[in-house]
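Lab notebook, design round three. We kept the backbone fixed and only want residue identities now. Task for the bench partner: fill in a sequence for the structure below.
Input structure tokens:
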């Protein structure tokens, strides 16, 4: 909401710098984005009077103008604007002047003719192109006939104004109007505002009844009020300059005197209005209803829109003519041919308008106010004010009476609170007179009975319903910086991380120490990606109103987001990428109100983790490398249970021969493996290996007690064994058997060779292991190691059918 400080002077006498005023608003009411000074950085821009305008001798569109700028001699200026003509007052940038966008104007030649300055359009003075009136969008701006040549132009255009740009929070919709802001500032500075009055003159001989029939078919909650007025014999034309200035300084484009009047009243009262061309209505009939799915409406922006069943419609003879509270229809647009105006003033449900604006991407000044709420008690006043203004600016007449489709009995709201409660919450010792004065400044009629205040809250402050709301008002007006500062009482506690937080932080350090880089991806994705790589069966959670088609569903896995990150890097020629992400996934069951949030950790690697350098070649990542990262991570978690990896082909997104589920005892905690080539192709990535672990489950599992054990001072003894086994025998089977039968001094089992080729029978493979023995307390005897090793060989032969080589 842009607040003109010059417009504020109509309400209050505030001889205060704009920056100071903005700072006070921000400390007391709502946030302020800044103070806008339209003429800032511009100089030597004056009013000019075009005395003569001749065609350029060497151009078919340029004109050579002699312009009076209040000096002894007129300036010769070459101008290409199609609307320049003799006798006009124009905007002149003198030689060596500065105009918008920090542009300096110098003397020049145009097609061989000297030009001593420039005739300016509004956008060349820094106006947003969206705010420039359409009639001068392709040419220069024509100033009023009474403008004095040579005077600075800024006052004529409202550029000498200072505009406070407020960021109004949803609970303070009352400040989306000049009236509401004036009431707020009056309370802050303890003044009585001069509020606008309505001078409406009706044509007693012309009754609205019989000419305009209004019916509301929608629910009363959706449309609490709907009223219309009729203005006849209107001449639609450009608005006077003073009105255009107020409109564009408020951030809107001037259109014509009818539309500008409704926008002016919108900014003044905060009440959205809409003007229809009465002659385009069917027999003066208007009805309000919900749309039917599949109906269409062409809105004022020329877009044909398919309506939803939740949209509120304004219709004529049941044919859609306006999307209520959002945008009017093209068929009933006010044009230069319009002579009779049907003016709408209504209150619509905030949720309905918000959904319509979101669904159709039509966020307007009107919808913004309906979404935050409007003053239900000001609808008729605003309607009358706009009707009077249209009649005055368009030389028309207002028909007698208001066509009412639905009315509402709007009454002020009473809230009761005690002085002791206020002081207890704020920690103050305010007197009853101080609090009473604050309510008086707010213009809230108040009765005091002992220490109990009965406060009558007017309809313009619909955000106040509870005693807590009144306490906030007292705190704001008293000044937050005046509230006493006290230290908290009670027994202090030592802040520390809980177990879950500690493991999550340590997990990130472990992943980074393994060479992975942290990534943070979106929790929202497409439904197809959300279902991929899920560890457990779950329904998906969809958003009712997603921001885009790519962000519709909460994820069930972190891997899909990491693959998107890999694709982003691969597209930019980064082919060696190793990422991890720690975050939440969202599981949902049909009987759950909201999804269950579960902590996961996942990684994705493509290319090589070893950088190519002198003497070192890149080594593409494989299954065993990423499995080693997972195994190292799980080992550092010190799980009490046994970790095992079981081959699986149940995940369609993963390679069926290079994927394993990860178990701790009987609990499934994750998976590791290669992404299926088809999936990789869909993501436009190369060969990629991933893992995902249920971090919440890992944190909940029992942990082994970790104890320090010194390195043995005694030497180790190793034994190597090579064997032929069936292809069905896994390395895990062999290592488990050796560990079980290896004796008390067996410390490590390492696979150092796998062979399956020439000289090895079909269906067989050769495995070779190194077994390391060590005693922590003494030097091992070779005979003891040999005896233990022989037991291992016997077990391998008997239980696995191994042929020792």
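Proposed sequence:
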């Amino acid at each position: 909401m842009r607040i003109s400080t010059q417009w504020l002077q109509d309400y209050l006498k505030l001889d205060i710098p704009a920056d100071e005023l903005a700072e006070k608003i921000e400390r007391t009411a709502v946030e302020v984005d800044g103070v806008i000074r339209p003429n800032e950085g511009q100089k030597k821009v004056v009013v000019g009077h075009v005395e003569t305008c001749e065609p350029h001798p060497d151009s078919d569109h340029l004109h050579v103008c002699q312009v009076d700028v209040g000096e002894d001699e007129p300036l010769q200026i070459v101008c290409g604007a199609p609307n320049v003509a003799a006798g006009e007052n124009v905007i002149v940038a003198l030689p060596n002047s500065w105009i918008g966008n920090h542009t300096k104007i110098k003397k020049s030649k145009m097609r061989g003719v000297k030009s001593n300055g420039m005739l300016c359009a509004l956008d060349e003075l820094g106006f947003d192109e969206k705010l420039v009136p359409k009639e001068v969008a392709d040419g220069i701006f024509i100033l009023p006939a009474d403008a004095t040549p040579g005077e600075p132009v800024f006052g004529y255009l409202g550029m000498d104004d200072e505009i406070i740009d407020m960021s109004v929070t949803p609970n303070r919709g009352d400040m989306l109007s000049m009236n509401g802001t004036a009431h707020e500032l009056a309370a802050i500075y303890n003044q009585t505002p001069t509020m606008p009055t309505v001078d409406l003159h009706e044509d007693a001989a012309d009754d609205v009844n019989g000419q305009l029939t209004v019916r509301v078919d929608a629910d009363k909650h959706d449309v609490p009020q709907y009223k219309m007025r009729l203005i006849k014999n209107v001449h639609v034309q450009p608005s006077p300059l003073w009105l255009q200035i107020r409109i564009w300084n408020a951030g809107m484009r001037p259109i014509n005197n009818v539309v500008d009047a409704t926008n002016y009243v919108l900014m003044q009262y905060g009440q959205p209005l809409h003007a229809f061309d009465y002659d385009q209505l069917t027999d003066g009939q208007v009805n309000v209803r919900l749309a039917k799915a599949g109906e269409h409406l062409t809105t004022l922006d020329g877009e044909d829109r398919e309506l939803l069943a939740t949209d509120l419609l304004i219709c004529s003879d049941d044919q859609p003519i306006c999307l209520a509270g959002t945008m009017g229809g093209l068929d009933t647009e006010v044009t230069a041919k319009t002579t009779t105006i049907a003016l709408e003033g209504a209150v619509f449900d905030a949720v309905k308008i918000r959904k319509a604006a979101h669904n159709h991407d039509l966020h307007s000044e009107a919808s913004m106010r309906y979404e935050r709420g409007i003053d239900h008690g000001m609808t008729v006043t605003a309607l009358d004010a706009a009707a009077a203004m249209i009649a005055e600016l368009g030389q028309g007449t207002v028909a007698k009476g208001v066509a009412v489709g639905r009315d509402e009995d709007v009454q002020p709201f009473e809230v009761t609170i005690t002085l002791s409660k206020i002081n207890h919450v704020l920690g103050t010792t305010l007197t009853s007179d101080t609090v009473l004065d604050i309510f008086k400044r707010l213009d809230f009629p108040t009765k005091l009975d002992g220490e109990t205040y009965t406060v009558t809250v007017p309809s313009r402050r619909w955000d106040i319903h509870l005693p807590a709301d009144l306490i906030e008002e007292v705190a704001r007006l008293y000044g937050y910086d005046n509230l006493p500062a006290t230290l908290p009482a009670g027994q202090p506690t030592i802040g520390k991380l809980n177990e879950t937080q500690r493991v999550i932080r340590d997990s990130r350090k472990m992943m980074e120490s393994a060479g992975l880089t942290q990534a943070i991806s979106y929790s929202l994705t497409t439904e197809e990606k959300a279902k991929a790589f899920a560890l457990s069966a779950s329904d998906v959670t969809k958003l009712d109103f997603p921001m885009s088609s790519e962000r519709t569903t909460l994820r069930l896995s972190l891997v899909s987001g990491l693959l998107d990150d890999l694709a982003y890097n691969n597209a930019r020629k980064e082919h060696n990428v190793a990422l991890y992400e720690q975050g939440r996934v969202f599981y949902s069951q049909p009987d759950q109100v909201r999804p269950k949030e579960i902590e996961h950790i996942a990684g994705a690697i493509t290319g090589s983790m070893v950088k190519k350098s002198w003497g070192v070649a890149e080594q593409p990542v494989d299954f065993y490398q990423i499995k080693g990262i997972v195994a190292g991570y799980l080992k550092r978690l010190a799980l009490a249970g046994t970790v095992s990896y079981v081959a699986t082909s149940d995940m369609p997104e993963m390679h069926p021969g290079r994927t394993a589920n990860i178990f701790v005892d009987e609990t499934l905690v994750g998976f590791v493996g290669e992404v299926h080539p088809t999936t990789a192709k869909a993501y436009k990535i190369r060969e990629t290996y991933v893992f995902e672990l249920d971090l919440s489950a890992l944190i909940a599992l029992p942990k082994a007690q970790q104890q320090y054990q010194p390195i043995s001072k005694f030497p180790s003894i190793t034994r190597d064994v090579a064997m032929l086994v069936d292809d069905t025998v896994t390395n895990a089977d062999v290592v488990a058997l050796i560990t079980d039968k290896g004796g008390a001094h067996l410390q490590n089992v390492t696979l150092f060779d796998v062979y399956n080729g020439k000289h090895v029978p079909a269906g067989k493979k050769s495995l070779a292991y190194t077994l390391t023995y060590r005693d922590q307390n003494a030097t091992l005897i070779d005979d003891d190691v040999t005896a233990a090793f022989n037991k291992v060989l016997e077990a391998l032969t008997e239980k696995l059918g191994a042929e020792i080589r």
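Keep this in mind before ordering anything: The mean pLDDT is 93.
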